[in-house]
Amino acid sequence: MTKIERRTSETTVRVVLGVGTGIAKISTGVLFLDHMMSALARYSGMDMEISATGDLKHHTIEDVAIALGESFARVLPTKCARYGASTVPMDEALVEVTIDAGGRPYYRGPLPSSLYEHWMRSFADNAKMTLHIRVLRGTDRHHIVEAAFKALGFAIRQALVETDAVFSTKGSVTLDAV
To answer: How far is CA 106 from CA 35, 61, 100, 101, in A?
Structure first.
């Protein structure tokens, strides 16, 4: 379990994150973000407590992504499956998410919402994960974005599975400040 507090002149964000059963306690002041964080917790199996206040919706959404991504990078087991993929239907929407939680940040979308496109990019950068999202079909932005968060949750659940090996030809990578 990890705890992160991020404070700027625009926002204050607190995240408590751990591998668990998907219990969520979310209060960001942005109702759709609360809904997406609850879905992400549920489908990933990660227990999340997120509280946030901010001056603008954009700043709150972005800073929650940054703090949650940093938290995810800290709780990732060294010997985990690392990779995950899921395709989730939601009514007319069908969205595929594929991740590599191997420490190399990269994001490729897009989602049909600039706020949640930015959330995914900020999360991937700070989680140090490769995250690909493909919207295979859909017309309702809510359904597409929600399917993306659910698929991300399922992919994270797969990637977090602890194994007895490090899935990298480089072995375990460490960085030390000298």
So the answer is: 25, 19, 9, 10
What's the pTM value of the predicted model, to 2 decimals? Answer: 0.92
Pairing relation of β-strands 93-100 and 106-108?
unpaired
Number of independent structural domains in the chain? 1
pLDDT tens for residues 51-94?
999 999 999 999 999 999 999 999 988 888 999 999 999 999 99
Under 8 Å between Cβ of 48 and 15:
yes
The DSSP symbol for 101 reads: -
**Within-domain flag for 177:** no
Residue-range definition of the domain harbouring residue 126? 2-159
Backbone angles phi, psi at 38, to 5 degrees: -65, -40
Residues 6+ apart with CB under 8 A from 145: 36, 111, 112, 113, 116
110-to-12, 22, 91, 115, 141 alpha-carbon distances in Å = 27, 26, 19, 11, 12
Cα dihedral 174, 132, 21, 171 in deg (nearest 10): -20
